[in-house]
Write a structure and sequence with these properties.
Chain lengths: ~280, ~350
Amino acid sequence: MKYEYNKKPELYTPIMMRIISKRDLTPDVRFFQLVPKEEYKHLDMDYKPGQFMMLSLFGTGEAPFSISSSPTRKGIFEFAIRKTGKLTDKIFELKDGDMLGLRGPFGNGFPIEKMLGKDIIIVAGGLGAAPLRSLLLYILDNRELFGRLIYLYGAKNVDDMLYKPDFVEMLDSDQIELFLTVDKGNEGYEDSIEEGKVTHLFKYITDIDPANTIACVCGPPIMYKFVVKEILKYNLEKDKILLNLERRMKCGCGKCGHCIIDYRYTCIDGPVFTYWDVIHMRELI
Amino acid sequence: MRVLKLAKKDEKKLYSVLVNFGEVWSPLPKGKRFSYEKIEDPKDLVLHEECIRTILPVKKFLMPSDFNILSFTPQQFLTSNEEIPFKVIVSVPPCEIHAVNILTKFYTTDYVDNYYMKRREKLIIIGKSGIPDEYCFCHKTNTSIVEEGYDLFFFDLGNYYLVWVGSEIGDDIVRKGSNIFDENLPKDVSQKYVEFRKQKNNSFINDVELEGVTDLMELMYDADFWDEFGDKCLSCGQCTMVCPTCTCFNIIDDLELNKELGHRRRYWDSCQFKDYSIVAGGHNFRESQAGRLKLWYTHKLKAFIGHFGSPSCVGCGRCIVTCPVDINVPTVVKKLKG
Ligand SMILES: Cc1cc2nc3c(=O)[nH]c(=O)nc-3n(C[C@H](O)[C@H](O)[C@H](O)COP(=O)(O)OP(=O)(O)OC[C@H]3O[C@@H](n4cnc5c(N)ncnc54)[C@H](O)[C@@H]3O)c2cc1C
Ligand code: SF4
Ligand code: SF4
Ligand code: FES
């Protein structure tokens, strides 16, 4: 038998990227800016908000991380990485100029085409602000292409809030209706950050036009049920609620099986699913 | 399609033809069972009357149980460009050819897996239809007849084999073996062929009935028997290792002692292992063994249809002879049917 297939890009071989800067976002989450090494600069590495890449470190292994930068700001890839185990511990030891391997982008990402012209509600919990930052920046950079931009962000406490200075500054912007909250302890930020779960922020969101609104949610597994319940109160259709989910992943390209839910691969058909998918697939949230 | 015959008296010469095309591999006895092994002595190449169920299926050639996909230095990652030799696999039963076709579809959908495809292109498949044993149930999974995926395919019609040519390489083989492959088919060939099919069909004993199981998987998702199976299951993963259409793998990095060179290994994994679905923070999406069994059976009997239009069980019977506690497609289907 003869098989037609593309022999060119090696699916499992990472390309090298250099760390050009990094800073701590919270005590255990660090922000990294990466650029492809010279010989890879010509590659077209376009991506969509909500996609992820597989990040490799020599001798330690590989894991998926959401792209936190926006494709509107080409050339630099940004990630917010939480220190949680073998690979991420090692990544935290890296210095500026050190190299990482990356492959991708993978996953479906947010369906930007369908979101154009719509009012957008973004709900982030904890580290969920990392993938949603890509979407946020994309919308801000193309502000005229979208309607209202509503952003609700909840973190455990003020120290655990990602991109806190950026968000606090954005509170004054007329480009975005932004509300911040922490579960407990907003000392020092009483004017800008509320106390309570992210679901409490929905009381500020009024006059939603359900036919013209799309909601995007990303956060810890426990959060989805409660947030979706709030969004459904605005009568949004089930396929207008988009959830960015996380599963264990080894390959990122639909082969290793680790991310499977029912008959769908989170890495191919996700990580962005609609609430309609969720109702029709077991174990999704 | 070209169809020829190979007289049984010439069977012994088959090896000398095939060896021109690559290493010759075929089922050889291993204890009470069989294993695909490299044939070193031409006398060992035997075409059995029965379908031979090897311990591991043909997938072991296409997706090795453990291999290096990359090497790396601190500066860069290098794709493995290991030379894959041509292999001729002889006596591959129809269900296994279906399984290979399923694997190929799987490995070329969405993204193409070159590690698989490089091996698939170097695999020459000589299929053979044989007599089933008490575990086979390919007649219930529509996998007892093959239309594609083989290079040559043999039917045992008494004192000769009917040989179907399924590819260009297959054609090259019969040309090379023009001294043993004969284009003049006997007059009674169609009669003999019908007799063979009848004999084969009448030999099936396993009467597991798969009709409707897709819907039953849905209806019985919360049934108690899953917990009984879950309690029994050893999470040993043998069912997934021997299943010809199971593909899951894990990836891990190894460093050589000098720490300047490393290898990225890809090896078989099992959805029946406990840590299969754990994510950051220790959240396990499938904590119970019953949940993991449901995942497997959903995937074998139902989910694959959504993706590829047919179930991914080909009825080879390996899970039946392998599972130490009798959890397999027939026992699950029986429970599904109440
Ligand atoms: C689509 C997607 C996007 C993600 N985006 C981000 C991100 O932007 N920032 C971020 O910090 N993290 C992100 N993660 C999670 C990140 O992949 C894990 O934190 C990382 O794999 C942990 O690796 P480790 O070697 O440091 O931890 P390990 O030592 O391997 O284990 C630590 C914990 O992580 C879990 N884990 C191990 N491997 C994986 C895996 N492949 N996927 C998920 N969990 C795993 C383990 O079960 C354990 O609970 C994302 C995961 C997915 C699936
Ligand atoms: S599920 Fe069992 S019978 Fe079906 S293909 Fe796999 S091992 Fe063979
Ligand atoms: S079903 Fe049987 S073979 Fe599979 S993991 Fe459980 S005990 Fe092992
Ligand atoms: S991560 Fe391997 S199949 Fe999705």
